[in-house]
Amino acid sequence: MMKRILLLLMLPAFFLTAQAQDDGDMAYRVSFTGAAPTICDFVDALLSHAEDEALGVFEGYWQLYKKGNGLPPAVKIKVDKPNGFVSYSHLYAEDNSKQTIETCYWNCKDGRHKIVGQVIATYQNGRPVMGQYDGITFYTYDSKTRMMEWTPTGDVCGDEFNEIGLTDGTVINLPDKGKDISLWLNTSNGMKHYTLKWNGGGFDFIKK
After folding, report:
1. How far apart are CA 1 and CA 53, in angstroms?
2. I need a surface site. Which of 26, 135, 185, 190 has the fewest CB within 10 A?
3. Is the pLDDT of residue 150 over 70?
4. C-alpha torsion angle, residues 19, 22, 26, 27 (rounded to 10)
């Protein structure tokens, strides 16, 4: 079973970018056939450079999936190319925990760039907890260079969102339909819902 460190205190804002790394180490070439990359091509690029354990485990099952081999009952992979969405989940029966990874992309209004988002989440006994590798990460793909580069969360979602920090119990759902990201934050006043609304080049942080 994958070892995890559950972080039960408020995390600093840099965890919104999933263990902040030097952006020079997070620029990847995206290989594809046809006129434009699909969500599978973006997942391939991200997993081919996976350095943390969560993505490394996903990468192994992703290769099995692409070859048409059967997956263990505890592992689920969903691919929705028309909507640009991939989800992965792995249930660990020994401690009733589950790791989930969602990846999707958005077409920018400038016609040249795409924003790629990835969320890693951990659940324990059906409840969201903040695991070692958890958070949301963004990348910007340039169709001219075919390169995808890590992008600070504040550049995509604004400083207000970047400063909120993630707490134990946070839930982030990338859209398998539509374009907006749903965010549930565990606060002292209970769970609060927020929306990251797509604006054609990034997201507006909408409080409800």
Report:
1. 11
2. 190
3. yes
4. 150
Q: The pTM is what?
A: 0.86
Burial class of residue 28 in the structure, from the number of CB atoms within 10 Å of its CB (0-12 exposed, 13-18 middle, 19+ buried): buried
**How many residues are listed for the chain in this entry?**
208
Q: Are 135 and 41 in contact (CB under 8 A)?
A: no
The H or E element spanning position 185 is: strand 181-187
Alpha helix (H) residue ranges in the chain: 39-48, 53-66, 153-157, 159-162
Q: How far apart are CA 86 and CA 65, in angstroms?
A: 12
| Distance (Å, whole) CA 140 – CA 158 | 15
Q: What is the pLDDT of residues 90-140, one digit of tens each?
A: 999 999 999 999 999 999 999 999 999 999 999 999 888 888 889 999 999
Please name the residues in contact with 147: beta carbons below 8 A apart, sequence gap of 6 or more: 27, 28, 29, 30, 141
- Contact yes or no for 136/119 (Cβ under 8 A): yes
* Residue 15 to residue 162: CA distance in whole angstroms: 9
Q: Where are the alpha helices (DSSP H) in 23-173?
A: 39-48, 53-66, 153-157, 159-162
pLDDT at 52: 86
Q: Per-residue pLDDT tens for 78-104?
A: 999 999 999 999 999 999 999 999 999
